[in-house]
Design brief:
Layout: H1 5-9, H2 29-50, H3 57-66, H4 71-74, H5 79-82, H6 86-105, H7 109-119, H8 126-149, H9 156-168, H10 172-180
Protein backbone atom coordinates (compact mmCIF):
# COMPACT_ATOMS: atom_id res chain seq x y z
CA UNK A 1 0.00 0.00 0.00
CA UNK A 2 1.39 3.45 -0.85
CA UNK A 3 2.39 5.73 2.02
CA UNK A 4 0.35 8.92 2.36
CA UNK A 5 2.90 10.69 4.60
CA UNK A 6 4.54 12.94 2.03
CA UNK A 7 1.28 13.60 0.20
CA UNK A 8 -0.08 14.90 3.53
CA UNK A 9 3.14 16.75 4.37
CA UNK A 10 3.06 18.60 1.07
CA UNK A 11 -0.44 19.86 1.90
CA UNK A 12 1.17 22.33 4.32
CA UNK A 13 0.98 24.87 1.50
CA UNK A 14 -2.81 24.83 1.82
CA UNK A 15 -2.86 25.72 5.52
CA UNK A 16 -3.09 29.48 5.88
CA UNK A 17 -1.75 31.19 8.97
CA UNK A 18 -3.05 34.27 10.76
CA UNK A 19 -6.68 33.42 9.95
CA UNK A 20 -8.14 36.07 12.25
CA UNK A 21 -5.94 38.84 10.87
CA UNK A 22 -6.22 40.96 7.74
CA UNK A 23 -3.02 40.15 5.84
CA UNK A 24 -1.38 42.20 3.11
CA UNK A 25 0.63 39.09 2.20
CA UNK A 26 -0.87 35.68 2.95
CA UNK A 27 1.39 33.16 4.65
CA UNK A 28 1.03 29.42 4.47
CA UNK A 29 2.41 26.72 6.72
CA UNK A 30 5.10 25.63 4.22
CA UNK A 31 6.55 29.14 4.12
CA UNK A 32 6.43 29.39 7.88
CA UNK A 33 8.14 26.01 8.33
CA UNK A 34 11.01 26.99 6.03
CA UNK A 35 11.50 30.31 7.80
CA UNK A 36 11.37 28.67 11.23
CA UNK A 37 13.91 26.07 10.12
CA UNK A 38 16.33 28.75 8.85
CA UNK A 39 16.00 30.76 12.07
CA UNK A 40 16.33 27.66 14.29
CA UNK A 41 19.58 26.84 12.49
CA UNK A 42 20.81 30.39 13.12
CA UNK A 43 19.87 30.28 16.81
CA UNK A 44 21.67 26.96 17.27
CA UNK A 45 24.72 28.33 15.47
CA UNK A 46 24.68 31.43 17.67
CA UNK A 47 24.43 29.22 20.76
CA UNK A 48 27.50 27.27 19.63
CA UNK A 49 29.59 30.25 18.49
CA UNK A 50 28.72 32.87 21.10
CA UNK A 51 27.25 31.09 24.11
CA UNK A 52 29.44 28.02 24.46
CA UNK A 53 26.78 25.58 23.33
CA UNK A 54 27.22 22.25 21.64
CA UNK A 55 23.95 21.72 19.84
CA UNK A 56 23.35 20.23 16.41
CA UNK A 57 22.34 23.19 14.24
CA UNK A 58 21.33 20.91 11.36
CA UNK A 59 18.98 18.98 13.65
CA UNK A 60 17.55 22.26 14.95
CA UNK A 61 16.72 23.20 11.35
CA UNK A 62 15.13 19.82 10.74
CA UNK A 63 12.98 20.14 13.85
CA UNK A 64 12.00 23.63 12.69
CA UNK A 65 10.98 22.26 9.32
CA UNK A 66 8.67 19.67 10.90
CA UNK A 67 7.55 21.57 14.03
CA UNK A 68 4.03 22.44 12.83
CA UNK A 69 3.27 19.37 10.70
CA UNK A 70 0.37 18.46 12.95
CA UNK A 71 -1.42 21.58 11.72
CA UNK A 72 -2.00 19.76 8.42
CA UNK A 73 -4.61 17.85 10.42
CA UNK A 74 -5.62 20.43 13.05
CA UNK A 75 -5.36 23.59 10.97
CA UNK A 76 -3.68 26.69 12.35
CA UNK A 77 -5.60 27.47 15.51
CA UNK A 78 -5.07 31.14 16.42
CA UNK A 79 -2.85 31.70 19.47
CA UNK A 80 -5.53 33.61 21.43
CA UNK A 81 -7.79 30.58 21.10
CA UNK A 82 -5.35 27.76 21.89
CA UNK A 83 -3.96 29.53 24.97
CA UNK A 84 -7.20 31.11 26.16
CA UNK A 85 -7.54 28.82 29.19
CA UNK A 86 -5.34 26.14 30.76
CA UNK A 87 -7.94 23.56 29.73
CA UNK A 88 -7.82 24.64 26.08
CA UNK A 89 -4.01 24.64 26.13
CA UNK A 90 -3.98 21.09 27.52
CA UNK A 91 -6.61 19.91 25.04
CA UNK A 92 -4.70 21.46 22.14
CA UNK A 93 -1.47 19.76 23.24
CA UNK A 94 -3.33 16.45 23.22
CA UNK A 95 -4.71 17.25 19.77
CA UNK A 96 -1.18 18.05 18.51
CA UNK A 97 0.08 14.75 19.89
CA UNK A 98 -2.73 12.85 18.20
CA UNK A 99 -2.08 14.66 14.89
CA UNK A 100 1.62 13.73 15.11
CA UNK A 101 0.69 10.12 15.80
CA UNK A 102 -1.66 10.06 12.79
CA UNK A 103 1.05 11.44 10.51
CA UNK A 104 3.60 8.99 11.88
CA UNK A 105 1.23 6.09 11.22
CA UNK A 106 1.18 7.09 7.53
CA UNK A 107 4.85 6.18 7.19
CA UNK A 108 6.12 2.68 6.45
CA UNK A 109 6.93 0.91 9.73
CA UNK A 110 10.68 0.87 9.07
CA UNK A 111 10.80 4.70 8.81
CA UNK A 112 8.62 5.59 11.78
CA UNK A 113 11.43 5.59 14.36
CA UNK A 114 13.40 8.05 12.23
CA UNK A 115 10.53 10.53 11.92
CA UNK A 116 9.02 10.13 15.40
CA UNK A 117 11.42 12.64 17.05
CA UNK A 118 10.46 15.23 14.43
CA UNK A 119 6.74 14.80 15.03
CA UNK A 120 6.80 14.15 18.79
CA UNK A 121 9.36 15.96 20.94
CA UNK A 122 11.62 13.71 23.00
CA UNK A 123 13.39 14.76 26.22
CA UNK A 124 16.91 14.55 24.76
CA UNK A 125 15.94 17.17 22.14
CA UNK A 126 14.47 19.62 24.66
CA UNK A 127 17.17 22.22 24.05
CA UNK A 128 16.63 22.07 20.29
CA UNK A 129 12.86 22.30 20.67
CA UNK A 130 13.37 25.37 22.90
CA UNK A 131 15.42 26.98 20.12
CA UNK A 132 12.74 25.98 17.63
CA UNK A 133 10.03 27.59 19.78
CA UNK A 134 12.06 30.81 19.82
CA UNK A 135 12.56 30.52 16.05
CA UNK A 136 8.81 30.05 15.63
CA UNK A 137 8.19 33.25 17.60
CA UNK A 138 10.86 35.10 15.62
CA UNK A 139 9.22 34.03 12.36
CA UNK A 140 5.93 35.38 13.72
CA UNK A 141 7.64 38.62 14.73
CA UNK A 142 9.09 39.00 11.23
CA UNK A 143 5.59 38.54 9.79
CA UNK A 144 4.33 41.29 12.11
CA UNK A 145 7.18 43.62 11.14
CA UNK A 146 6.63 42.99 7.43
CA UNK A 147 2.90 43.64 7.75
CA UNK A 148 3.61 46.87 9.63
CA UNK A 149 6.06 47.89 6.91
CA UNK A 150 3.21 47.51 4.42
CA UNK A 151 1.08 49.90 6.48
CA UNK A 152 -1.07 47.19 8.05
CA UNK A 153 -1.69 48.16 11.66
CA UNK A 154 -3.63 44.91 12.22
CA UNK A 155 -0.44 43.23 13.46
CA UNK A 156 0.69 45.96 15.91
CA UNK A 157 -0.57 44.20 19.05
CA UNK A 158 0.63 40.81 17.84
CA UNK A 159 4.08 42.35 17.29
CA UNK A 160 4.12 43.78 20.81
CA UNK A 161 2.95 40.51 22.39
CA UNK A 162 5.45 38.47 20.36
CA UNK A 163 8.34 40.74 21.36
CA UNK A 164 7.33 40.38 25.02
CA UNK A 165 7.11 36.59 24.69
CA UNK A 166 10.57 36.48 23.12
CA UNK A 167 12.07 38.68 25.82
CA UNK A 168 10.61 36.36 28.47
CA UNK A 169 12.21 33.28 26.89
CA UNK A 170 15.50 32.04 28.34
CA UNK A 171 17.03 32.08 24.84
CA UNK A 172 19.63 34.87 24.59
CA UNK A 173 20.24 33.90 20.97
CA UNK A 174 16.76 35.22 20.13
CA UNK A 175 17.76 38.65 21.44
CA UNK A 176 20.91 38.53 19.33
CA UNK A 177 18.78 37.67 16.28
CA UNK A 178 16.44 40.59 17.02
CA UNK A 179 19.36 42.99 17.44
CA UNK A 180 21.44 41.86 14.48
CA UNK A 181 19.04 40.48 11.87
CA UNK A 182 15.54 41.83 12.52
CA UNK A 183 16.26 45.48 11.58
CA UNK A 184 17.01 44.49 7.98
CA UNK A 185 13.40 43.34 7.55
CA UNK A 186 12.34 47.00 7.56
CA UNK A 187 14.60 47.82 4.60
CA UNK A 188 13.65 47.97 0.94
CA UNK A 189 15.25 45.68 -1.63
CA UNK A 190 17.55 48.50 -2.78
CA UNK A 191 18.71 49.04 0.81
CA UNK A 192 19.69 45.39 1.27
CA UNK A 193 23.33 44.97 0.28
Amino acid sequence: MPSAFFAMLFRMKYIHRWALMRNTTPENLSEHAMETAAIAHCLATLRNRRFGGQVDADRAALIGLFHDCGEIITGDLPTPVKYHTPELKTAYKQLETEAGNRLLAMLPADLQADYAPLLRPRPEDAELWQLCKAADKLAALIKCVEEGKMGNSEFARAEQATRQALEAMPVPEAQVFMNEFLPAFTLTLDELH
